[in-house]
Give the backbone structure.
Amino acid sequence: MLEARHLECTRGERKLFRNLSFRLGRGQLLRVAGANGSGKTSLLRIMCGLVAPSAGELRWQGRPIRGEREEYCRNLVFIGHLNALKDDLTALENLRFAAALGGLPADREHSLAGLDRFGVAHCAELPAKVLSQGQRRRVALARLALSPTVPLWILDEPFSALDVAAVSELELLLAAHIASGGMVVLTTHQEVQVVTQAVLRVDLDLHTAAPLAA
Amino acid sequence: MSTSKRFSWFYFSSPQTFYPLAGRLQPWFAALAVLLCAAGLYISFFVAPTDAQQGEAYRIIFIHVPAAWMSMFIYLVMGFWCGVGLVFNTRLSSMWATALAPTGALFTFIALWTGALWGKPTWGTWWVWDARLTSELILLFLYIGFMALQAAIDDQRRADKAGAVLALVGVINIPIIYFSVQWWSTLHQGASVSMKSAPSMAATMLIGMLIMALGFWMYSIAAALARVRCVILERERHTEWVMAEMGERT
Amino acid sequence: MIRALGWVLRRDLLLVFRRRGDVVNALVFFVIVVSLFPLGVGPEASQLRNMAPGVLWVAALLACMLSLARLFAPDHQDGTLEQMLLAGEPLVVLVMGKVMAHWLVSGLPLVLMAPLLGLQFDLPGDALAVLCVALLIGTPVLSLIGAVGAALTLGVRGSGALVALLVLPLYVPVLIFGAGAVAATAAGTGAEAHLLLLGGFLALALVLAPWASAAALRIAME
């Protein structure tokens, strides 16, 4: 279970949000909403442990993540804006290296199955630099198909650049993960039809810091 | 829990409380600096005897050696406060280290200049690849690197932390660099030309240099206090207390 | 943990294999810089022989430093570095993997090339051998220290020149003892002390540099 207590985020000299608290349990999806620049990506990066919040703390299974970063990271998959693909490696090689670093099964069969899930198995032997934006996004997301055992999925705008077929495939994957007791945190501008009952919503526009002394 | 007020040095660890303290302390250190430097200069010009071999030119040693000492000392102090800021995540420690750096670089520069001024009349060359001068040159690069790194990074907290890592790496390397340059210098030059071949230390000379060093130390603290006040104002300019302070001034 | 190091190493080596030009660039730079010195100083043999250890080492320093731009910056730009920070493996181990790959690509070729260039400067055979050994011990130190500089200046504007300013003063001890080893051999005195000290620097760098680089990477990614 992921718990946030009174999180506050300061970027440069701006306070993006303050006093943000929520609890995310097994089988729940958290949707982070807010206008552009309201701190959605910053919140996700705080949840990954990449950035320390300027106030408040984050707890995983009741313990603060600050002292146990490596242990915490083994329980999460993060897919951000950048696809984390190497241009000179093939789609299959990229996926296998990403899986290996994430402690997931990195053999050929699993990776091909992952690519196939997102409809890019035919790109497996092509270098990433010749793939289209949408194809690259799918290769990046294929990691999720290999991560059913990883409890927490943190996704930053996962639906961007995807076509309708890929969007519905991703929605199915997210629903399956939640149904099996996993947790998903995502930001998106689109309305998402993930079939699940437990959807939490955090709206960052409601947590903006008051402007400092005029 | 005790209800009596206990004085704690940690009270001053916030920029807001340190700012007025720095303002009150700074004139005292400046006054001490002027007194001690004047005493040191008096000793160097009027009390210390004329040297048989080097004449009057050697008197610049009274500035050269204390400046070199201070340049090293300030780097170590800077490294210490950088370490504190990194471990305890305090803003003021990083601000203090940033305030110290230019003064340290200044003393390194003074040491280099006075070394050149000493070299010219004594050995005929403006620059001597002596162990101390070469080490001071490298130390100058380390200071400039620290200041350049902090200036190049836009995000203030990242600049503080990156500078701190660099300063700590520098602190570990300085003994290694000094040792290496020392070895290199003795190997290549022998003992013919060396700043170490200064006239043997009469007691008055040593006292004179120590007083000068103390004067430089007081100056460093005074300069750093003045500078850290500017740094605090600049970094905390969005807080209410700074705006009130600025409002009072205008 | 070792497996993670292996994966990072394999990935970086595979990337270099796909773009072999990068290796050649560093090597060509090394050769050109070394060749510039006789053109600048004159071809007189004994002068070149005296200069050779210093010239070869300075060129190796510069070549190593130039290649630091490839160490973390591309990973930072495409998001791979972020994933490494989230890998659940100690970042120190992953950094070691990257530094090892960097040395294999930018340091080891210099070690292999240096004897040929030493012949251009008319260095005797035993000095050439010591040159190889000294570079073999010294270039990993250059990669390790360089990694700290590259990590500190990640994504900073003007980082090329800034890395040089940060890293070259720290390279000075390696330069002094590396060139000193070759000069001592050429002069007939032994180079054991120099090589032992270089080995000491390597041990110290192996312990401290990956840790400092990992800390600097986390700071840069905040």
Chain A touches chain B through four residues (CB under 8 Å). Residues 210-214 of chain A have pLDDT under 50 and may be disordered. The radius of gyration of chain A is 17 Å.
